[in-house]
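Example record

One chain of 274 residues, shown exactly as stored in the release files.
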Amino acid sequence: MTRCAVLGSPIAHSLSPAMHRAAYAELGLDWRYDAFEVAEDELRAFLSTLGDDVRGLSLTMPLKRVALELVDTVDPIAELIGAANTMLFEADGSRSAHNTDVPGLISAFAERGITAADTAVVLGGGATAASTLAAFRGLRVSEVTLVVRDLSKAERLRDLAAELGLKVSATDFNQVEQIGGFDLCVSTLPGGAVDQWAEHFAQVAPVVFDVAYHPWPTQLALVAHRIGTELLNGLDLLVHQATLQVEMMTGRSPAPLAAMRAAAREELNDREPS
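Predicted structure tokens for this chain:
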């Protein structure tokens, strides 16, 4: 039996098993997909235990950077942003690292008919913010404002934006009242972190992408819904990046997006307190 899995720490919250198993069922594949708790310093040893029945791994935090050191080839996007969320195992024994978060973001926007924009604001300065900047290149965004809690953390993103050809400026949350007038707003912060500024950021752009998905809705989402701002959430990103993983791992395309989204939503509903 061919096996795949998701690795990370913590991992119990992951929706990847539900989505990938739903895809296998829809595609008629007798494959197995598991979840393993693996810390950053444990990844090398874990990989050494795998047999030749493993085809691919989904990687979540904190493994997205260290994975780049443990493969034979790295795709250009993963190399550019310094993070991979997918590892493939080839028949010849080689390993490759890939990033489906960036094309997943682009696909999530495209599903809503958004294929280009000029200006954007990004809340947060972590790995998801880096993926968002790379996705903006695919959306032909030219100017980006970063809003971070600590301006010193924005330096790496400034360098990345320069590599991507994006004009970028950075500010902190003390200046939020002066920020507005964008085509897109993407919050990469955990649910609740934007609550005190929700009224403001729900109005700074006609489209808001809040990458949180549980618990949902966030305060930002509630305000956006109330005032009629178009809203995307983390489940949109999660499902689109997972469909790309399924296509890469199975060689079957297109992956069953609707079935995978339904499985993720059902899993989330099951986790809600009764």
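Notes: The chain has ten helices and twelve strands.
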